[in-house]
Amino acid sequence: MEHVNIEKNLLLRAAAGHEESFTQLFFLYRHKLYSFLLRLTESPEMTEDVIQDVFLKLWKDRENLVNIEQFGGYIYRMAQHQALNAFRRMAKETLILAELTRVTNGAAPADAADNLSVREVREKLQYALDHLPPKQKLVYTLSREQGLKHDEIARQLNISPSTVNNHMIAALRTIRQQLGPHLHSITGASCLLMIIDGFR
């Protein structure tokens, strides 16, 4: 009962904009959420990202914290939902980057404007790849350019599949940040546009 009262008090104060109370809520649930999410994602990096997303959303919508009856159950459901969204984003990013690799590695552009766009994207993609940490670059190359599965990469590099997954997540994030403003410029690649439309 005392725990419930403390939590309700923290929620009331956080809803009023009290940052210290919100920080206390964060530390109250962070380790529990981390263990829960790590079982779902098998990726420490993705787990940390999801936790940050969860608490960022809670803070942005903090006025509604007072309306939550069972905060523990609520935050676990929210974390699970955010993890599923993260998996969907990663799947779409993987499709986009796979298509970008295909387009920039020799697929003929539809017209002169596309030729310029593809060249620009190729340069950005190569820049992003060149500046990846060595392990991330190697994992990305084995996966995207040689078509190896994560368990095959793990065996070849003598690391765990979850480590391969972590490297891929980090690499995809870096590449997405580099290419983000340029993804929509390849107007003539219909297949790529279809994928990008689904990514929005």
UniProtKB/TrEMBL annotation:
One of its GO terms (biological process) is DNA-templated transcription initiation. The keyword Mitochondrion does not apply. One of its GO terms (molecular function) is DNA binding. Residues 29-90 form the RNA polymerase sigma-70 region domain. Gene3D superfamilies: 1.10.1740.10, Winged helix-like DNA-binding domain superfamily/Winged helix DNA-binding domain. CDD domains: Sigma70_r4 (cd06171). Keywords: Sigma factor, Transcription, Transcription regulation. Pfam families: Sigma70_r2 (PF04542), Sigma70_r4_2 (PF08281). Residues 123-173 form the RNA polymerase sigma factor 70 region 4 type domain. Belongs to the sigma-70 factor family. ECF subfamily. This is RNA polymerase sigma-70 factor, ECF subfamily. It comes from Chitinophaga ginsengisegetis. The lineage of its organism: Bacteria, Pseudomonadati, Bacteroidota, Chitinophagia, Chitinophagales.
